[in-house]
Amino acid sequence: MNLELLRYPFHDDELWALTFMKKGTIFVCVNSDLALCKQLKANAFAGLLLMPEPLLREQISLFGLGDGAADEDSVLTLMALFAMPFKAVVLRLYECGVVSRQQAERLLDVASAEVSQRILLTGKAKRWQLDGKGTVSFETLLEKAECSFSHEYVTDSREKEDRAYISELKKKYGMM
């Protein structure tokens, strides 16, 4: 079954994450408008769904990441494969017993600037990066919207509303 992780600002403090299924694809949507601590809990929820332990272990074996998968580049590879943030991947590795507590703590101490630098150097997980406001890069939003429209994942009325909202955003940020 296909899985898609979406991040979108819902402007609702009580809505942390949601899932839905459309045409054989499971969508997990995390509210990017929440405080970071709440987003991390929502990401943990997504991790349970998006990174089940058997699949995680299979990918570690397939990509030759070793038993520990305890370096930054291994985490970046898993970020790219599972469309999850760095810290959520590290927490999932710890939960599944792939890394020790000490390894997880070391990885969790890696500064976000260092993670960003490694992403730029390696190109791994680049398309899943958040901008400084905690939202998916605008380019990705447009790609996801167009994909949803072309696959008819949304109703005609929703597509019309979404296109209008995207148009407003483009005007607001001088992209028209």
Written account of the structure:
With 176 residues, this protein is mainly alpha-helical. 54% of the residues lie in helices and 11% in strands. It has a three-stranded mixed β-sheet with strand order 1-3-2, covered by helices on one side. Strand 2 and strand 3 form a beta hairpin. Helix 1 packs across helix 4 and helix 4 runs antiparallel to helix 5. The longest helix is centred in the last third of the chain and has 17 residues, at 156-172.
Our count of helices gives 8
Going across the biggest sheet, name each strand in turn: 1-3-2
Order of helices and strands: EEEHHHHHHHH
Our Rg estimate from Cα atoms comes to: 17 Å
Helix/strand/pairing category: mainly alpha
Helix content: 40-55%
Number of DSSP-assigned strands: 3
State the shape.
Answer: globular
First and last CA, distance? 37 Å
Arithmetic mean pLDDT: 77
Low-confidence stretches: 130-139
Taking the sheet with the most strands, its summary is: 3 strands, mixed
Give the percentage of residues in beta strands.
5-15%
Number of domain modules: 2
